[in-house]
Amino acid sequence: MSINNQEPNNSMLLQLNSLSIDETYMFRCLQIAKSGLGSTAPNPMVGAVIVCDNKIIGEGFTSAYGGSHAEVNAINSVKDPSLLKSSTIYVTLEPCSHYGKTPPCADLIIKMGIPKVVIGLKDPHEKVAGNGIIKLEEAGCSVKVGVLQKECEEHHRRFLSYFTKKRPYIILKWAETVDGFIAPEPTKRGEEKKPYWITNSKSRQLVHKWRSEEAGILAGTNTVLADNPQLNLRDWAGNPPTRIVLDRSLKISKDFHMLNGKQKTIVCTEITDSKLYVDNVTYKIINFNSDVPQQLCNVMYEEHIQSVIIEGGSQTLQSFIDADLWDEARIFKGANNFQKGIKAPKLAGRILKQVEILNDQLTILRND
After folding, report:
1. Closest CA to 229 of 283, 309, 169
2. Alpha carbons 92 and 162: distance in angstroms, whole number
3. Which of 227, 240, 250, 342 has CA atoms 20 to 30 A from the CA of 128?
4. 105 annotated ligand binder
5. How would you classify residue 140: left for phi > 0, otherwise alpha for psi between -120 and 50, otherwise beta?
6. Is 313 annotated as a binding residue?
7. 318: annotated binding-site residue?
8. Is 231 annotated as belonging to a binding site?
């Protein structure tokens, strides 16, 4: 898709002042590329900018999956195509060189006669992997690679994790009380189950926004049985993630939200009797006695899920932490306390950000 120019704010201006000309235009590519978050997967969310005589004449970002790539949208946004023959196209990721749902972007750049291509990052996809660069250079294009490379790697971290680590980008998310509990003690049989909230409504809305940005969302059996979560989007517009649930012996019955068929759902189990399966749900057989987190990563890789939020419960979260299979953790701390209950997971990582959301504190960690 193409978008109109946006006026930079003061913080952007400070950053832009320290950049070279090529870096400045690549920075703009990264800005507009974010517009594709949550809709382009399994394609990467690429940004492209076309410059002629130091003036931006075209911009584009990757359309929703199945649609045009960023380079195509940027080229189509140029009002005077004759200018392309004296222009430079900036793109966050190497232009593709193979046929997929759309023709190769490298071919279009060559066809339109764009003489110079500036690339942030080489594409690790085995069908590209430098072939786009080679094709452009063999056609006579001047190609520069590695402009704002670290920033482009950060932006494309989901895509890179999938193609270099062969697993999704893994985000752990939970809310804990001031005294470190993720949930109160489970109710005893016959006792009334009382609803509880650790975080405020603004934090809960933010979680729904996050769900719209990632390809998958995962929860364990106990969490589903205890809370009957929907794991959908109610407080935010967007595409709902694929739900992945652990259910070793198929304890979750079809009347639970998780199996309502309203969004794609994958159940990982050891039960092979398909007569017990629910319609409109995908079932994957895994071995629950051996390295479950890695097997879940394998399932998600096979299903082309490039990023996942793991929302619980505590045991499931801790299993990924213990296996060192996580990239980012988003931890809310509410203002209340339970005094007793289910303890929150424990992990160590680099603090990326700490912010307050009304009376909640959000800490984001990275696993460097």
Report:
1. 309
2. 17
3. 240
4. yes
5. left
6. yes
7. yes
8. yes
d(CA 271, CA 276): 8
Q: pLDDT tens across 260-271, in order?
A: 999 999 999 999
- Which of 284, 351, 346, 300 has the alpha carbon at shortest distance from 319? 346
Do residues 239 and 213 touch, judged by C-beta distance below 8 A?
A: no
The model's confidence at residue 10, banded by pLDDT at 50, 70 and 90, is very low
Amino acid at 260: N
What is this structure's pTM? 0.89
71 among known catalytic residues = yes
Tokens representing 203 are 């934090």
Q: Can you list the domains of the chain with their CATH numbers?
A: 10-160 (3.40.140.10), 168-366 (3.40.430.10)
Residue 121, SS3 per DSSP: strand
Closest CA to 308 of 136, 172, 150, 200: 172
Tell me if 228 sits within 8 A of 201, measured CB to CB: no
Question: Residue 190 in contact with residue 354, Cβ under 8 Å?
Answer: no
Give the Cα separation of 59 and 14 in Å (integer).
22
Whether residue 224 contacts residue 245, with contact meaning beta carbons closer than 8 Å, is answered with: yes
What 3-state class would DSSP assign to 30? Answer: helix
**Under 8 Å CB-to-CB from 188, ≥6 apart: which residues?**
none
Q: Please, are residues 139 and 110 in contact by the beta-carbon 8 Å criterion?
A: yes
Which residue of the set 7, 23, 59, 71 is catalytic? 71
CA torsion angle 25 27 30 32 (round to 10): -60
Assign 129 to helix, strand or coil: coil
Sign of the torsion formed by the C-alpha atoms of 83, 85, 91 and 95: positive
Q: Which residue has the tokens 């992990």?
A: 347
- Provide the pLDDT for residue 190: 53
Which residue has tokens 């940027």? 74
State how far the Cα of 317 lies from the Cα of 39, in Å rounded to an integer: 26
- On whether the CB atoms of residues 91 and 46 are closer than 8 A, the answer is yes
Is the pLDDT assigned to residue 257 strictly greater than 70? Answer: yes
317 in a labelled binding site: yes
